[in-house]
Amino acid sequence: MRILVLAFAAALACLLVLPAAGSAQGGSVLVTRVDTTITPVVADHLREGVRIAGREGAAAYLVEIDTPGGLLESTRRIVQDFFSSPVPVIVYVSPSGARAASAGAYITMSAHIAAMAPGTHIGAGTPVTGQGDKASEKVVNDSAAFAVSIAERRGRSTAFADDMVRKGTAWPDSRALRGDVIDVVAPSRGALLKDVDGTTVSVGPPDAQRQVVLHTAGVRTTEHGLGFFGELRQLLASPELAFLFLSIGTLAVLYELASPGIGVAGITGALLLVLGFAALSVLPFNLAGLFLLLLAAALFVAEVLTPGVGVFAAGGTVSLVLAGIFLFRGELGVDPAVLWPTALVVGGGALLAGRLAWRARRAPALTGHDALIGSRAVVHRAADGTGQALVEGAWWTVRGRDEPVAAGQHVRVVGREGLDLIVDPADPADPADPAEPAEPAEPAEPAEPHEGRCDTEENTP
């Protein structure tokens, strides 16, 4: 206990004597590359980068960005993380020809240091719906206020922030520098780190900010990438892919239920469903849409189990369309070009699966002893009221149900007792009777050697 008290007192003394201004003199700069759309996966990755940079005392956290935009909710999370970051955050729009459009513009302006490479541009932050249409006036006003608040927090141009949302304004690097949108234009990562060396920025949450002087010239950089699983999650972070995986996976499972086989359809369907739910795990979704998706699956299963005139299939199709409409939140949505064809294909496939299941249930058994019932054969040998007959490629002992069988008699299998087949006489004129198999030939006696000339016509080769 005394040791703990002394340690606590020493830590408190250190905190009291620390100066208000610190120096980010970590051994390296953590670097993350973002060259894709802004999704929850990217937001989680950047949050992890901020946490790692703070934990390791990095000199700065550098985010190199080239993005067409992304989800507004994910962008808000990234901006909040940058505002409260314990280390300086530098966002660098690069390489030449890259862009920080829409969500990328919000993220760039929220950094402690905003930089651009020559030949890049920033802006065009007007929010759109999942189908690419301009969002409602309410959403536009909210986004404009969000952009202006970012600009005010970082001392950037509020006029540009408002215009990029309301008017879709976009500026190249040179004008963005003159218009107080960014802090520096640098041709490379090394030049950027050298240019910002010695800059003082405020880091930390608003109630606990401190001044930090950047020391980034010549420091080593450490890459912080998404990795294989992160790339996979980013690939799956698509509403269209999630809807396709869930829909087609359900259809594959239905076909496995309708006509069980070696399990290819079932395994494929299960894998697609797992990928679909993995996509849902990284996308914001509504419970109502998920329940509609489950209802559609239940109706399709009902169509397979109790096929009728297609009522269940029609209901499942309607439910699937509604699920695609209500499944995702915010600006996300399934493209109608994917939604309607997928719903119709899955609905029609469920109807066909129901017909296949109905036909399979009505078909006679094709395996086991029941498959022999109804087969016709010819009795070849008979003794003591029983005989031998070739039935479905195998020799069986046959017994008459009401009377003994005779050799050469045409019979039809009506039952089975032990290893004997029970038969009834059959009409020999029935065209369904199988052709009478030939008796196995008796082995020929070896020819006696004979002497003399082979001068007969029969003996000539």
UniProtKB/TrEMBL annotation:
Keywords: Membrane, Signal, Transmembrane, Transmembrane helix
Biased composition regions of type Basic and acidic residues, renumbered to the chain: 447-461
InterPro entries: ClpP/crotonase-like_dom_sf, Membrane_assoc_protease, NA-bd_OB-fold, NfeD-like_C, NfeD1b_N, NfeD_membrane
Positions of region (Disordered): 422-461
Domain NfeD-like C-terminal span(s) in chain numbering: 370-425
Residues annotated as signal peptide: 1-26
Main location: membrane
Pfam families associated with the record: NfeD, NfeD1b_N, NfeD_membrane
CDD domains in the record: Clp_protease_NfeD_1
Listed PANTHER family: INNER MEMBRANE PROTEIN YBBJ, NODULATION COMPETITIVENESS PROTEIN NFED
Name listed for the protein in its UniProt record: Nodulation protein NfeD
